[in-house]
Specification:
The structure is a single chain. The protein has helices spanning 4-9, 13-29, 34-55, 61-95. The chain has four helices and no strands. 15% of the residues are buried. It has 107 residues and is mostly helical.
Length: 107
């Protein structure tokens, strides 16, 4: 995602809700299975988290606190994004009676 720091620091909860709700609707309209869609968000979060941990250089309490706060913001952002995206996905599926929505691969 471009401009992640902007999203973490300046966007409101309403901005995140709108953006991810739309993403959920779009993925449903494309026939992406809900489970695949959810996993994609979780994996992006995990990869970003791992990248930041590899890049981090904690020298003291201030840096440790800053990194912990960044990770907290990332968790909050992605968790809320996942919930809003799922709501958008479900709304699209409900409005279209599930006809355009791909079934989950998990039986």
């Amino acid at each position: 995602m471009r401009h992640l720091s902007e999203w973490l620091l300046t966007k409101t909860g309403r901005d995140v809700e709108r953006r991810y709700f739309e993403i959920g609707e779009r993925r449903a309209s494309q026939g992406v299975a809900l489970s695949d869609f959810c996993w994609s968000i979780v994996l992006v979060k995990e990869h970003l988290w791992e990248f930041l941990q590899r890049q981090g250089s904690m020298h003291g309490p201030v840096e440790i606190y800053g990194e912990m706060e960044l990770l907290r913001l990332l968790d909050q952002f992605f968790d809320r994004g996942l919930c809003f995206a799922t709501e958008g996905y479900e709304q699209y599926a409900q409005l279209h009676n599930g006809s355009d929505v791909a079934p989950s691969k998990r039986g």
